[in-house]
Every structure is written in structure tokens, then in C-alpha cells.
Amino acid sequence: MLFSHDYWFNSETRISTISLFEKESVRIQSIDGVSQNKPKLGVTVLKNINKILFSTFLIIKPFYLFSIEKDPTVQLRLLNSQIVHQIVSAAVEHCTQKGYLVSAAVVDRNGNLVAFLRNPLSSPHTIKVSQRKAFSSASLRTKTSEIANRRSDLNYAPDILLIVGGVPIQFNGIFYGGVAVAGAPPEIDEKCAQAGIDEVSEIMEFAD
């Protein structure tokens, strides 16, 4: 591209510049038609202007590109307090009807305890055991019964306890956390934990 700029310094002298995208030259042309080369003042000015514009573009471009990218945040779906308390209540009740005194725990997808219920007559150890089994099922996203015999090495991982009785909580393909029961025989623990999930499955099936 070729741009021409005229700069008038007085009534008799005009500086004509040719864009620095092509030849950089400056002519001083007097009214009588005599031309003579002078220092490239006009070109220097244009160079500075173009440098400023280019620098501004480099600064603005990253912000523009960032604005057209997808939202950098992630949305998570969590069970509310009413639902998680229904789960532990149903789990404990199911085991109580079978004659077992148990504790039940629910953790969220990050392994944080969100609900806990204990039969007052259950053994003290069931408090920690139920929470660790729930944490394990949430962390591994599978039933503790399905992995206990296949990955015994995971027993050395912090807070992992691969004893039957932990069940992941998942509805409509969305993972929410884990629930576990402790205090009954392991197989009964798992059935009671599953009973807690089944208690709210119909509600969750129609959840938005």
C-alpha cells in the first residue's frame, strides 16, 4: 500500500512523505518547483505512530481472543441437604429393620462429609468406618465390593478403606458422591446403602 502525506511548514514549503510500507523518502518542494532532499522528519513521525498502533494491537489481541473462548468456569450439581439426609435415614432404617445397629454416611463428589446418621446403640468404630467407606466409593467412583479384591494396594492410600459397604451415588449419568453403611455384615451394609439411594431415586429421576 502507498500513502502520501503533505506537511506544510510555511506558505512556501511543503513536505511530501511516502508511506513507510513502500519507499521511505521525503521531499521538500518549494513553490517555484525546485525540490531538494531533507532529513526524513515525516517518516520518523509515521514510524512512531505505527509502532504505537502495533503495540496497542498486541496488548488488545489476547483480551479479544480470551473473550471469544468458552466460559472458563465449570458448573457442578450437588445434592441438597434434604436429599442426603433422606439417604442416610433410609439406609439406617433398612438395616434396623433387619436387626442391625449401624451408622451411615454420605459424602459429596469431593469426599466431604455432607450427612451422617448413627443408631445410638451402634458400635463406636462404625462412625469412622462408614465415613471412610463412603469416601472410598466416591473417590474411586465404584462400589467398594467391586474393587476390594482387585486393588488391595489402594488400602495404603489416605482415607481409603476397601471394605464392602460403600456405594457411589449417581443419577441420570451424573455423579454426586458416595454413601456407606457400617455395623452389619459387609454384604448387608451394601444393601442398606443401596436402599438409601433407592429411597430418593424417583425424586432424582425427574430432577432438572
Describe this structure in words.
The protein has 208 residues and is of the alpha+beta class. It has 2 domains: 4-67, no CATH class; 81-205, Beta-Lactamase. It has helices spanning 41-67, 81-97, 125-140, 144-147, 186-205, and strands spanning 4-8, 13-18, 26-30, 35-37, 103-108, 113-118, 166-171, 174-182. A 4-stranded antiparallel β-sheet has the order 1-2-3-4, covered by helices on one side. A 4-stranded antiparallel β-sheet has the order 6-5-8-7, with helices on both faces. Strand 2 (13-18) and strand 3 form a beta hairpin. Helix 2 (81-97) crosses helix 5. The protein is elongated and about 90 Å long. The protein starts with a strand and ends with a helix. Residues 1-31 have low confidence and may be disordered.
Provide a quick synopsis of the model.
The chain is an alpha+beta fold and 208 residues long. The chain has two domains: 4-67, no CATH class; 81-205, Haem-degrading domain (Beta-Lactamase, 2-Layer Sandwich). The protein is 40% helix and 22% strand.
